[in-house]
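ok so for the tutorial part 2 we go from a plain amino acid sequence to predicted structure tokens. step 1 is just haveing the sequence, like this:
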Amino acid sequence: MLGNLQIILPVFILIGAGYLATRQKLFTAEQVDAVMKFAQGFALPCLLFSAVAKLDIEASFQPQLLISFYAGNTTVFILGALIARYIFKRRPGAAVAVGFSGMFANTVLLGLPIIERAYGPESLQPVYAIIAVHVPYCYLIGITTMEVARAGGQSLGKTLMRIFKEIFSNSLTIGLLLGFIVNLSGITLPSFIWSPIQMMVSAAIPIALFSLGGVLVRYKLADRIGETIVVLGLKLFIHPGIAYILATQVFDMSFELTRAAVLAAAMAPGVNVYLFANIYDRAKGTAANAVLLGTITSLFSVSLWLYILEIFF
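step 2 — the prediction. this is what the tokens look like for a chain of 313 residues:
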């Protein structure tokens, strides 16, 4: 268990360094925004483009892998929304935002560096398959449910346009799509194109983690702590638990695919949960709590899942 903590601790030290630098005014809010924009708008899309362009699609896109992850993902969304609606007495729109807070995992900023440190670069292929579906699927479910649930929801046409806009204006999605185009078309890019892309790739994760720490300074603990604890319980334990049971008891998947499904599911809520809550002005306090507390507590919960994978697989 301690060894697993040491594997992932450097990732959280980078996040903590960004947090402290921003907290101590050594890194301004404007600088945080600029660096995060560079990371999310350019460096991380290059990373995903490079990975998908070279991905063995047939080997990585296994239906059992995607079902194991997304069955848990969807279950957590439904449970979170129902608990918020009927136990915490939230209005329908706010309940959907609470469910979304437990649905959207930080698979890129946390998942990639942690899984790579634990199992090596070759372990990331099935993780990229999960990431390729993550943004489109989560926004499709979240936006559609929100528009159905909230009073005065948009028409079907406008709802579809919002879904399309949120998915295809996302720079990470664009990087993924371009990677698929190169992969499936068989295009061979010259070395003078690949070299600058790889330079961007090498900068992507450390810069993104540092700036994530700076972003977390903005999130203050709000009320609804009980609701937040439920969200994090669903996200950090129930989601990976469902993925583990499906992977091992239903599909009898290989260790390589099982660890990808379980660890991707075990990642803390990503910043997108707050962006989603902010779009609709619903449950923003719970979303902020989930991002801040989830990132902190995932240091220990991910260590636990690494330990479980070691002793039970």
